[in-house]
Amino acid sequence: MSRxxxxxxxxxxxxxxxxxxxxxxxxxxxxxxxxxxADREGAGSSPRSGGTLRAAFxxxxxxxxxxxxxxxxxLDLVRARAWHGTLGNLDPEGPDGVRYGVLxxxxxxxxxxxxxxxxxxxxxxxxxxxxxxxxxLHSLSVLAGRSTLPVYRLAAANFDxxxxxxxxxxxxxxxxxxxIADGRMILCQGNFLVVKxxxxxxxKGMPSCGPFRLTEFTAGQGSAFERYDDHYxxxxxxxxxxxxxxxxxxxxxxxxxxxxxDFAHDLSPVTARTLTGDAKVRLVPTGSPYLVGLSFQMNMxxxxxxxxxxxxAFKLAVDRETMVKTVFYGNAETGNDLPAMGFPDYAGSxxxxxxxxxxxxxxxxxxxxxxTEVRLTTGPETPGMVEMATxxxxxxxxxxxxxxxxxxxxxxxYADFAAYAALPLAGxxxxxxxxxxxxxxxTAGGSPSAFGWKDAETDALxxxxxxxxxxxxxxxxxxxxxxxxxxxxxxxxxxFKPNLNAQAEGVAGIREDLFEQFPGFSQASLx
Amino acid sequence: MNxxxxxxxxxxxxxxxxxxxxxxxxxxxxxxxxDAVSAVAGVDASAAQRADVRAGLGLDRPAxxxxxxxxxxxxxxxxxHGFVGERPVTxxxxxxxxxxxxxxxxxxxxxxxxxxxxxxxxxxxGGGTADRVVSTGAQVLAAIPEFVVxxxxxxxxxxxxxxxxxxxxxxxxxxPLDAPRALVLPVLTLSAVGLAVATRLLRVSVADAAAxxxxxxxxxxxVRGIRLAVRHVLPNAAGPAVQxxxxxxxxxxxxxxxxxxxxxxxxxxxxxxLAVAARDVPMVxxxxxxxxxxxxxxxxxxxxxxxxxxxxxxxxx
Lengths: 527, 317
Fold this sequence. Notes:
The complex is a heterodimer of chains A (527) and B (317). Chain A is an alpha+beta fold. Chain A contains 18 helices and 21 strands. Chain A starts with a helix and ends in a 23-residue tail after the last strand. The interface between A and B is large, with 53 and 51 residues.
């Protein structure tokens, strides 16, 4: 276990312990089982095998399908993770920072122009056939390459998927579009899943090689699985798995406390708080890096945000601690105005920006922007977004800005994209993906979602950082690029919130499956 | 036959109305700010990717042209595919609409007899203690928002008494009928609100009917109690109440969103809500048109019932 991981686990347990002291013995007892892998075995009780775990997610309603390349909801990916094999997941303990799935490893050519994926021999599909390079090629270049979903676009933006080739049965060669050294982090983010060569339609009974096989699927209601006994690596402890759609946060919590499910995904902060007194359930928020960033984008194309002093003042005005405390009841972490906190390429060494209303007021005065009028536009796209905006506006008023909030109905903020990109000040959120590749995809080159940020120097620096084979050099260049964003950038990112998941007492092993944001159940067990 | 001609005429009218309303729904989706591109391609998509997706969804064509194409397919029973997930709209309707109809039907089955009883009881004793208690109770109940009623019922029946499940977990591949217990709380919640409104409506028309010379004559003729209420008052009072009840029941099919969310009931209302949020035009269009058709049909049924009652009443006199 690496030192970094130890420390994180320790901090997490420390925080949970502090919370438990406040809530009572039920949760305190729970904390002792909250240790990753090794500790659990050390405790002497081996996890029970058998049983069917039932988990509840938001889901996409009756219009969801089994085609996860075309399914935007978290449940679509969770279902696919249970059903299909994965290239790999990010793992701070792993040798390359990843834990491989159907792969044995990934080699990078010296000039960073090609990645060679080595297939793990002996992986079998449910129809008995062996997984080969053709299956990976089909999944990557045909299915993922054609997907319009943001998660799969990240690969298309970095690799020349159309020119990918199989080299024998056990090797796939993937050319890069430009030299990159961090490609493993993109391919092994957990969302690249492998289906059999030639798969076009996704249906029950199709061959798969994930930990479970699908036995039942009803769109908008849920799916049922049974263990796949021939699963590569290790076979799940559970006999079966049931993934249910329950859209409302309170209803998900109700199903958990009522014993109808064993795991409830992504509760709202308020719902999660109501569960803290219940001894039968336990809150298990996702850990770093699987945190969602809640941010405010300042449009540099309009006044007063064309002035870097105003941008800095807005960043200094925000009271991060209070947001964490009042909106998330302490169940969140403060951000440092940069996305991707916790990923290996995140600039964690930069100084943390503190709450300094005095200096903010001074900067605004210098820029001649004290008393300026600003309207912040946001919408209920993820729990906490509107509450955060309300608090931010109060903070801004305290430094002399005449700020107000406009809340759009659900869905409209991003649906009307042209209007969104033209907003002077917009609330937004960032899904957890690595820092530099994300910057290239959605911020570099004056992209519309960059809100007027256009800086060729930073773009070049990011490209250089990603092309550096030496990790130390890459880190240095990456940090330099992010420092510019931190100093002059147009994003206020005060809070990272976890997915507030909760599970029944005794459920274990979900965190061990990595990629917690879209929980996997291959190592999970029931009480 | 008189009634058949009436129904035929109304049906033709409803068909014309359906076409007009489907065009109106389409117009509304066209003027709604934004489109489905962000829901399909993600917020971070570049301008070129957005244009691609928009063209792929056919959103670059003029609205009138898209409506014409949709209507031509719809007449043949093809309501198209949703933008998100690409499932056929008719599949969604086939799985969700029956659940909503079931919920509305059961609510009606609970509300109608109870409202009749309470309406007769209070209407015939206008001004008495019972009338005042029931009327005030109904007024309070009608004023309480649905989600509060739902929360109260959950607190009492699911959490405190523990006799009912908190959410409607329907077995996979099954319908709510496979888990009848799960239907109780949603139906109770909707009935509570519906009952309050229906009782107040019936009370007024019962009181009016009871004051007519016809009822007065019956009473003087020695007809009393249940016989008076059922044979003489009810047929005269039911007409307007039946129409009001059908109106609320029809509306219930698509607008039980609150109850669908609180109890996670798999109804059509939430599908419509999701589709609107994602700007999924074919889905919104298909669901809204189906709901309009249901509403028109229910109204027609209400009118036919009211007419039948009226006809009987005519013979009775």
